[in-house]
Amino acid sequence: MSASVVEVRGVGKRFGRRDESVEAIRSVDLSLASTEFVALVGPSGCGKSTLLSIVGGLIPPSRGGVEVKGHPVKGPPPEVGMMFQNPVLLDWRTARDNVLLPIEIRGGRRAVETARRHADELLELVGLAGFEGKYPGELSGGMQQRVAICRMLIADPEVLLLDEPFGALDELTREHMNVELARIVSDAARAAIFVTHNIQEAVFLSDRVYVITPRPGRVAGVVDVDLPRPRDLDLVTTEPFQRLAREVRRLLDIGAEIEPTETAV
Amino acid sequence: MAIDREGPATEAPWEDDEAQDLASRRTIWERVPRWITVPLFGAVLVLVWQVAVWMEITSEFVLPPPAEVTTELGQMLGNLFTGGYVLENLWVTMQEVFIGLLLAAIAGIGLGILIAETSFGRQVVLPFVIGINAAPKVAFAPIFVAWLGFGIWAKVAMGAFIAFFPLLIDTAAGLANVDADQAKLFRAIRASRVQMFFKLKLPGGLPFIFAGLKTASVLAVVGAIVGEFLGGGAGFGSLIRIAGSQLAIARVFGFVAILSVIGYLLYAIVAWVERRVVFWRSSELIPGAGM
Question: Closest-CA residue in chain A for B193?
């Protein structure tokens, strides 16, 4: 295993004013190797999305710290690409121009000129060849999310932060997208943190699954997923897969029973 | 859209109950094309008017018959297209409306950006805007006349003054209406404030800004006419005032008809530009915009 690209050390987060604050996350440690795919699984409101936002530099932690490639995170790191539950496309830009947005922000119009071919290649990679000039309003939900994948990849990030990226899609589209995502991430040898509340999805995609407890979010346990790659959907019905899914489920159930004890901050 | 809702008569009503159900929910006003119903309703209104005249509810001076208004309007249009006094005065009013709208657009959008984008605008300037907006704007007319005289500029100022408030409020609302997820995306890709403004907030706010522009285009006409009522000089407002004082009500109706066509055209031009610019969305879907 290669050197870690993301180090999360003792990260805690409280929201609200001091006297009536809510503890969202408590002392989470996490380490991500450079080609590793890690899933954070937990029930809604367990702070897993908050943790991802902290790693992505979108919100600061209350305690502890995050390092990406050895640099402390003080804002969105340039090595990171993010994807959210919704595609978040700009309606007035074509699929291609949406993909090129991060390039345009970083390098201006000249950089866009040179990256245009790359954008079209990415769109082709996710099966959107011929749709480069379409506007988001002309694309289905699944197609929009593919555009969002390309936008995340265009700047060639080393770390992908995926916040329930297919949560808004129907089950069948979602399974299909997961297969594609696994292929794209492993082809380019990238690291990824994937947030979900779907156990199957987590096991299917990951090398390791972090199970997060609710309120405050803590790591209840880590499950190593030693299933071979590349994986296809048939894997889901196999005994080793089921066994790992049961293990994640067990940790989730234990996590739900732990009564959080309030400690002074 | 011209689907035959009657359907073949052989079909029993329960056989395609869903389609039948939908069809039965469509009222007659949805089934008959609007190019028939709208003029028909107009004809009914004219008939009611004519009946009111026949019944001599009031004097013909006060309520002239439709025919007289039509004659008056015909003469006006003849005068208009032969370059007579109607054209002269319309040109004056149109100049006031256009310049007024242009100034309203510059001031409204500019101040709207200031209020939405700076804490100075929000904290310090906004209370003044709300305060002045609460005042009856027509009452400012004597001030504009005193400052700018009896020429077109007092009317331009009146038109711009009345038209600019809704535009300002819509602009500020549109810029503040930025989608939280999109804002998060722009932060994640390390966009600067300026980039965020030009690449996200401004295009995202355009539907609101155009809603404001459409309101402003109508209000610019109102402002110019009010200015002419109170400030005298040339223009349609003055013509209407004079015709009114002579109890030439048919002529007043004629002028008003021409003005509403002008106002509608101006609105239609802005709406046309909007469809070109904001091609991805219609401002009619935004509740509260254009108030």
Answer: A105
> What are the tokens at A160?
């992908």
Q: What is the rounded CA–CA span in Å between residue A52 and residue B226?
A: 59
Which chain B residues have any C-beta within 8 angstroms of a chain A C-beta? 179, 181-182, 184-192, 195, 199-200, 203-204, 278-281
**Measured between alpha carbons, how far is A223 from A165 in angstroms, rounded to an integer?**
22
A1-79+158-265 folds as Rossmann fold (3.40.50)
Domains detected in chain B? 1-63 (no CATH), 78-285 (1.10.3720.10)
- Compute the 3-state secondary structure of chain A and give helix, strand, coil in percent, each to the nearest 5: 40, 25, 35
* All structural domains of chain A with their residue ranges: 1-79+158-265, 86-156
Q: Count interface pairs A-B at CB distance under 8 A.
A: 50
139-168 of A, contacting B, C-beta below 8 A:
155
Residues of B in contact with A78 (CB under 8 A): 190
- Nearest chain A residue to B196 by CA distance is A105
Q: What is the pLDDT of residues A199-255, one digit of tens each?
A: 988 998 899 999 998 878 888 888 888 888 788 888 888 988 889 988 888 888 887
Q: Of A75, A72, A43, A83, give the one whose Cα is nearest residue A57.
A: A75
The two three-digit tokens of residue B225, written as one number: 């006419």
Neighbours of B247 (CB within 10 A): 13
Q: Which of A52, A58, A74, A92 to mutate to test the interface with B (most CBs of B within 10 A)?
A: A92
ipTM of the complex: 0.87
